[in-house]
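sanity check this record:
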Amino acid sequence: MIGILWRGDRRDPAVASNRLFEPLAKQLAALGVAAEPVLYADDAVPEVRAQLLRLRGVLVWVDPIANGRTRAELDPLLREVSSRGVWVSAHPDVILKLGTKEVLHRTRGVGWGTDTRVYRTAGELRAELPRALASGTRVLKQNRGNGGLGVFRVELAGSGRVRVQHGQRGSAREEIELDAFVRRCEGYFADEGLIVDQPFQARHAEGMIRCYLVQDRVAGFGHQRVTALMDPAPGEAAPPAPPPRLYYGAAKPEFQALRAVLESEWVPAMERVLGIARDELPLLWDADFLLGPRDDAGVDSYVLCEINASSVFPFPDEALEPLARAAAAR
């Protein structure tokens, strides 16, 4: 028996199934593995613990930050049941290596990297950000977050001021004092937090390519025109809303060059840098790429902008079968 865990009200039977659980449970059943919903809530840790200890393993879908809630109670529980023999994917310790923005700095020497910097205190940010901005527009990201929370496009505006665009949908661009921006970011350094800083990619409006991986193999793609950090249209304060993400199987012809280098070079290099063994990789995770500069022959380069390992959903239908097979094998 394998558990499929997400946040939910354990007192409400109507939420014990959803569009994640049902298709995955069906795929697992075809392989002879039964799946059980595990509804997690911070006020139900003893009940969830008892349920998990009855299972052979659990697949977890819980965002690091959502509606003011974090994984502060969940992650210790997952570590505990893992130490008692329950297989957990993704394990919280692996997420800390792989699924935070710091991975962009730690793996900057991998072929997907770029001029990536890290600030561990507000003092470092205040002292070093102006030098980074002198080279061009930057994108700053808090270490753990989702949905654009704590992601900022920043550029110099002159006289100690910066233009800032928050990545949360609907946020308006503003011009403020650099010191005021640093004060706004101070909360991101709490609890050993940090901020990662990357160059803004000029081709970002051409879309982000999301590679969905089952362990170390690509199982599908997503493609979306990401608008959160785009220039607003004339007369508008905020960038436009993004169009829907389009999903494809692993054989999508346009993305085969990226798939080949990701599987053969970049994932193995990442494993070495982060000290992650292949069987420790999450069963399902994704890596997001923006198009970088073309080389002299006109060939695209790719820049990693995020890895998601805590709650990868939705994902292409084509990834269901390899995901189920990998879970059944474990």
In short: The chain has a mean pLDDT of 94. The longest strand covers residues 151-158.
